[in-house]
Amino acid sequence: MSTYRTLKGYSVKSITSDPANPNEGQVWYNSTAKTIKVQPLIAAWASGGNLGSARKGLGGGGTQTAGLGFGGNGDTDATEEYDGSSWTNGGNLTQVRISTTGGGTQTAGLAMGGNAPPVTNKTEEYNGSSWSEQNDMGTPRGYLAGCGIQTAGLVIGGDEAPGLSNKVEEYNGTSWAEQNNLSVARSQLGALGLQTAALGFGGYAPGVSTAGINNSEEYDGTSWTNGGNLGTARYRTAGCGTQTAGIGFAGYITDQTASTEQYNGTAWAASANLATARERIGGAGTQKVALCFGGYTTGNVATTEEFSEAPTTRTVDVS
Asked: DSSP assignment of 131-190, as one string?
């Protein structure tokens, strides 16, 4: 029979007060309080400040306390900045676009592709106050996914209208260069990570499935290899974080979903659900501190949710 020490690498200690910095999963006996305590990792979504305008199909970037949302709806060039509690207007895009994607930070953002309509290959950079047009992508497309930073961006997949795309392009801060293709052509997928360590996941690929797919692919800056499959196939999704510590959330299965999953570089695992099931959202942040904003339920929404995952001391009920 396995013991706690065998499983976790440390034993249950009897101490007079709670440890200052307990390890995740650590269990101890507080002899003063006469209670057994544990340090689990607690994940949850909580309400944040609403966007100034309800919208779907928007791009995102930045962090939970310095987020960036832009475009959407099909008729907007609006940009909004998030400070961890509320959104304020930023500089407008030079081109109206929906079903777009982004990367970078609030003061060094990147907007890539989308539907203008029609599909566009326009690229724009944000400096914290205004957008400026840059060199175009090689292939115009909407419903694409992107990640990376302003000087090292990545776009994958999408809809070339007509036809799904498996094309991959890298941006060096000046120009785009086509790279090795995804193994599965798809649109409405999620992406996260960096240009040299990215993850593409989910999406719409009718040649593979009439619903969303659960396939993930990992990019090393040169080629793509299969990663772990999502627990729940989905498209119209978003994610953030890194290739070895990522998070994907929301999307569409047979309806909007609130499902959240975390990726450890090998496999996906279910995490806390969003309060509101939605699709075509914006996302930003990291695996532990993420942001989901806007999207579509039965109509466009302005709501924002903040994700956090942190160790929290709990008392064990042994009655």
From this structure: EEE-PPPSS--BS-EEEEETTEEEEE--B-SSSB---EEEE-SS-EEEEPPPSS--BS-E
Q: Are residues 28 and 48 in the same domain?
A: no
In a domain, 120, yes or no: yes
Residue 141 corresponds to which tokens in the numbers above?
């497309």
pTM: 0.88
Q: What is the rounded CA–CA span in Å between residue 182 and residue 172?
A: 20
Q: What pLDDT digit, counting tens, does each position of 195-227 carry?
A: 999 999 999 998 888 789 999 999 999 999 999
Q: Does residue 317 sit within a domain?
A: no
Cross-strand bridge partners of residue 14: 29
Q: Within this chain, do residues 201 and 295 fall inside the same structural domain, yes or no?
A: yes
Task: Examine residue 315 and state whether it is found in any structural domain, yes or no.
Answer: no
Q: CA 262, 253, 239: angle at the middle one, nearest 5?
A: 30
